Amino acid sequence: MSQENHGHASRSVELSREDNGCFVTARWHADGGSAEISGPDEVVIRVADDAAPDGRGRGVTSAVLHRIARQVDDMVAEFHELPSVGGYQVMVRRYIEGRLAELAQARGVTAEGFESDLLAVFDDLAGRGHADPLGVLATATGRSREALNQLLDVARQRNDHQGHPA
To answer: What is the pTM of this model?
Structure first.
């Protein structure tokens, strides 16, 4: 929906979720030209009419607010067309798994070279500014940080001996 606001076009967007007997609605009354990620201008939380009696009796508690915060985070991601937090983690893991499979296929699925594949993916994640490339790569490969670090060191040593840049 579009509204006129002092000569500037603005958009009003409303997103809603239902969570365990509560409805949460987030509204943005934002200027369409801003590229900044912003939270909603207002959030309305309402206990559903058909909520369990104990839930209706307690109303909006701190526990409800904590649950609703996750819903608002997801709505902010949706509003800005970003993957949700869980979605981002899944996306990174799928990227790592796919990239490792591509690299393994390219080298002919021999055991030698796996460490170099890990290093290539690690360097790519670090180069893209990922906050914890070692941690996410360890999780995606099912290895501890220590074990993964040792494999990366092996790849770096091989690269040094073969004259490849680290």
So the answer is: 0.44
